[in-house]
Amino acid sequence: MLNFLKNRIKSFGFAFKGILHLLSSEPNSKVHLVAAITITVVGFMVKLSATEWILQTLAIALVISMEAINTAVEKLCDFVHPEQHKKIGIIKDLAAGAVLVTAIAAIIIGAIIYLPKFL
Ligand SMILES: Nc1ncnc2c1ncn2[C@@H]1O[C@H](COP(=O)(O)OP(=O)(O)OP(=O)(O)O)[C@@H](O)[C@H]1O
């Protein structure tokens, strides 16, 4: 049981290291983090409902986690095949497309939550 707990804590540490790596190596992720903090502060200011908090939190988590997966795919591609290759280009474009989809969804969720409050 103690070993199980130690291993879980270790895994959490590795995952945390991944997030720190994302923040230090990807400028986009810093923008996303600042946006996430800002929108969370605004959320408290306008007193979001429980449902609005759930949707906002999910949108933030989705964008940041997709950014992490995109970065992982890019790094894996560069490691496995550092030279230019059409298929590597397609793989990277697909991963970038996934981030774009979540970012668009987050903007739509933000508009649905905040436009009625400010207009
Ligand atoms: N090895 C490669 N072979 C073919 N095309 C590539 C290759 N590397 C990158 N590309 C093309 O260039 C685009 C940008 O790739 P890059 O790895 O520079 O990501 P990026 O857009 O700079 O990512 P980010 O800004 O998230 O770090 C890819 O989406 C792909 O279309």
Automatic annotation (TrEMBL):
The chain crosses the membrane at residues 94-115. Keywords: ATP-binding, Cell membrane, Kinase, Lipid biosynthesis, Lipid metabolism, Membrane, Nucleotide-binding, Phospholipid biosynthesis, Phospholipid metabolism, Transferase, Transmembrane, Transmembrane helix. This is Diacylglycerol kinase. Pfam families: DAGK_prokar. It is a multi-pass membrane protein. Belongs to the bacterial diacylglycerol kinase family. InterPro entries: DAGK, DAGK_sf, UDPK. It is found in: Cell membrane. The gene is dgkA. GO terms for molecular function: kinase activity. Its main location: membrane. It comes from the Bacteria. The keyword Transmembrane helix applies. It comes from Neptunitalea lumnitzerae.
